[in-house]
Amino acid sequence: MSDIFSEKNMMYALERYLPAGETVVAGIHGIGLESDIRQVFGKCFLVEDTLIPKENGITIEVRKRKHANCDLYIGITRNYLILAECDVYQHLYEFNDSPNLAGVRVQELGAPLSIKDIGTCFPLDEIQKCEIRKGWMGSVKCFITMKNGSLLKLMLPKLGGVGGGMPHHKEYREMIIARLGG
Question: Cβ distance 181 to 163 under 8 Å?
């Protein structure tokens, strides 16, 4: 059995990105089909691959993109969608120090943030649209558009891998679909 099909490993990976006070309600192994994530950070500086908070810092828009399939853990809390990659993957990053801020939530950093950790935690109330379609072999595809223009395309497989390492996959998948669809 692959280590990615383990609820214990999945929970460990998802908990890394949990906001304070949140707990994972449901989590599964899924596939990231495509992502185009946009986040704007205020009062910070970019130093190598880390955003550093500074009172006299600037506003920086970070775009993180991936247009190839990758293994993900997909988790849901009461208020958030959490994504944790199962392996180290390459992404395209773009930076803009004069972004259009119309209708965009600017995040203030309390601590340094690696650009690799951007695009892991999404407030459910920021979802503008979630289109759910049936996929191949019983899978479900979710096309999520966020209010800030971010786009996530996820595939939630029907089964949670072989070997019994994810015994709650079916139950958790249904909870995630219901929450995203609501």
Answer: no
Strand partners, 27: 75
> Which residue is associated with the tokens 């650009």?
115
Q: What is the pTM of this model?
A: 0.91
DSSP result, 111-148: S-EEGGGTTSEEEGGGEEEEEEEE-GGG-EEEEEEETT
Q: How would you class 148 by CB atoms within 10 Å of its CB: exposed for 0-12, middle for 13-18, buried for 19 or more?
A: middle
Residues 29 and 178: their CA atoms lie apart, in Å, by 17
Q: How far apart are CA 64 and CA 35, in angstroms?
A: 8
Bridge pairing between strands 26-47 and 70-76: antiparallel
- Under the banding of pLDDT at 50, 70 and 90, the label for residue 182 is low
